[in-house]
Design brief:
This protein is of the alpha+beta class. Helix content is 35%, strand content 24%. Helix 2 packs across helix 9, helix 3 packs parallel to helix 6 and helix 5 packs across helix 8. This is Restriction endonuclease. Keywords: Endonuclease, Hydrolase, Nuclease.
Length: 431
C-alpha cells in the first residue's frame, strides 16, 4: 500500500479539496476525522473542527487514515517553514525522551534517521524485538484443555461429560504446558501485523519478515487497555518492558473503522507543551550529572497551596533546581523554571500576565527568589525581571526572568546550549 503524506505545522489548517505536498485532502478523510473527533472528549481532542476542514492544536505527531499520513510538526519560529528542520528537531527530542526507556544497548535505530514519527517508533519496536530474540525469548506455564485419546493431566469432568458421552475412548483433560504461547508474545505478534499494514518502508518490511521467521507462532488474543493493565513484570519479563510500552502506544492508539473496513485511523500525537517540559528536564538532569554540577534537578514537586473542609489543591512547578550541600540542616538555594512551548507574542518578548502570575504563585509557595520562564526563541530577547513589592514591606525581591532558547537541529549542540544558558543564569546575581 502506497502511503500519501501531508505535512503541516501545529495550529495550522487542513481544508477539504485543497492540495498539500502534492496530495489532495479529500472529503472522505475529512469525514473520518469528524467521526474520530466525535469519539474523543472535547478537552482531549487533537484538533478542532472548522468550516470544511480542521485546525490543529498544540499536539504534534502523526495521524494515519487508511493510506493518508498527516504529519503535524512543531514550529517555534513564525518565519521558519523548513519542514526538515522541525521534523528532525521533533524526532531527536522524542529520541532523547525514549532513551530513558530503551534497554537494548546496540539498538540500530540510533544510527538511522527515520523519515516520520511513525517510522521512529516502528524502528524502536523492531530493534527491541530483535534484541529480545538475540538474548532469548521467555517461556511461561500455560493451562491447556483438550480432548485426546490419552489421559494426560487431570480429567476435566464438566467438559468430559459434555463432549464424550458417546466417545468413551476420549478424555477431556486439563494440564499445564511450558511454551512460548503467552500474552506477551501475542501482543508483539499483533504489533508486527499492525506495522506491516501501516508502512510502505521496504527496509522495515524486510526486518519484519526476518522477525517472523524467528518469532514463535502464538494464538490470536484480543488486546485491550485492560490487557496491558493486567501485565505483571518480574525478573524474567522486565526485559520485555520497552517493546511492550511501544506496542501499547501503537495498539491502543489504533482505531479500526468497523463500518467501511478501509480507513483505519492511527493517531500518535504528543502535547508539545509536555514534550518541551520533559525534554528540558531530561537535558538538565543529564548535563548536570555529566558536568558534575553542584545542582540537582527535580520534576513537578508538589506542595499544598489551598484547602477547605471539602477539598484541597496542590501546586507543582515544571522544574525545580536545588543546590547540593554536604552540611546538615543547611538551607540551600532553590530555583524554579516553568517551560512554555510558545513564542511571546509581543516584539519585546514580554511574557503574558497569566505566565507571570503563575510564577509568582510558585515563588511564594516554594519561597524562591530567582525564577524563570523558559520559551523557545531568539536568546537575544531573553530578559531579566522582578515583581514589585509594596513600599511598606521589607520583603526580599522575587525575580522572574524570561529565557529564550534557540531550537537547533543538532540535538547535542542544542542540549549543551541549554545547559550553558541555564548554568550561566544560575550563577548570575539578581539585579
Amino acid at each position: 500500500m502506497k502511503i500519501n503524506k501531508i505535512t503541516i505545522f501545529e495550529h495550522n489548517k487542513l481544508i477539504v479539496d485543497k492540495e498539500y505536498n502534492g496530495v489532495i485532502f479529500k472529503e472522505t478523510y475529512y469525514n473520518q476525522l469528524i467521526k474520530f473527533y466525535n469519539e474523543q472528549k472535547e478537552k482531549d481532542s487533537l484538533y478542532t473542527l472548522i468550516a470544511n476542514g480542521i485546525k490543529f492544536k498544540e499536539y504534534v505527531g502523526v495521524i494515519q487514515i487508511g493510506n493518508l499520513q498527516i504529519e503535524v510538526l512543531p514550529k517555534a519560529d513564525k518565519d521558519s517553514t523548513d519542514e526538515n528542520k522541525w521534523r528532525k528537531l521533533l524526532i531527536n527530542m522524542l529520541r532523547e525522551i525514549e532513551l530513558q526507556l530503551i534497554k537494548a544497548p546496540s539498538s540500530s535505530w540510533l544510527k538511522l534517521i527515520p523519515n516520520s514519527i511513525l517510522e521512529l517508533y516502528f524502528e524502536i519496536f523492531i530493534s527491541e524485538l530483535e534484541y529480545l530474540i538475540h538474548t532469548g525469548l521467555i517461556k511461561q506455564y500455560q493451562p491447556v484443555t483438550s480432548n485426546q485419546a490419552v489421559l494426560r493431566g487431570s480429567l476435566y469432568f464438566p467438559k468430559h461429560i459434555t463432549h464424550n458421552l458417546v466417545h468413551k475412548e476420549l478424555f477431556y483433560t486439563r494440564n499445564i504446558t511450558y511454551n512460548y504461547d503467552h500474552i506477551w508474545h501475542s501482543i508483539f505478534r499483533e504489533t508486527i501485523q499492525l506495522i506491516k499494514t501501516l508502512t510502505d518502508n521496504a527496509h522495515l518490511h524486510n526486518r519484519i519478515k526476518v522477525l517472523e521467521l524467528y518469532f514463535p507462532e502464538v494464538q490470536k488474543r484480543t488486546i485491550t487497555a485492560q490487557t496491558f493493565a493486567n501485565l505483571k513484570y518480574n525478573r524474567k519479563t522486565e526485559s520485555y518492558r520497552p517493546a511492550t510500552e511501544i506496542a501499547k502506544l501503537l495498539l491502543l492508539n489504533f482505531h479500526p473503522d468497523l463500518s467501511s473496513g478501509t480507513n483505519h485511523i492511527l493517531a500518535l500525537m504528543f502535547d508539545m507543551n509536555k514534550l518541551w517540559e520533559k525534554f528540558i528536564y531530561i537535558t538538565l538532569r543529564k548535563q548536570f550529572i555529566r558536568n558534575q554540577s553542584k545542582y540537582n534537578v527535580y520534576a513537578q514537586r508538589k506542595k499544598l497551596f489551598w484547602s477547605s473542609e471539602y477539598n484541597k489543591r496542590e501546586i507543582k512547578p515544571d522544574i525545580i533546581i536545588q543546590e547540593q550541600t554536604n552540611e546538615a540542616n543547611k538551607q540551600t538555594d532553590c530555583y524554579i523554571l516553568d517551560t512554555k512551548w510558545k513564542v511571546p507574542e509581543n516584539i519585546n518578548a514580554i511574557p503574558s500576565d497569566s505566565d507571570l502570575m503563575q510564577i509568582f504563585a510558585y515563588a511564594n509557595i516554594f519561597n524562591t527568589h530567582k525564577n524563570a520562564l523558559i520559551y523557545p526563541g531568539n536568546p537575544k530577547n531573553s530578559k531579566k525581571g522582578h515583581y514589585e513589592s509594596p513600599e511598606d514591606t521589607q520583603k526580599e525581591t522575587i525575580g522572574c526572568d524570561t529565557i529564550l532558547l534557540e531550537c537547533k537541529e543538532n540535538i547535542k549542540e542544542f542540549q549543551e546550549s541549554i545547559y550553558s544558558t541555564i548554568s550561566e543564569w544560575l550563577s548570575q546575581k539578581m539585579e
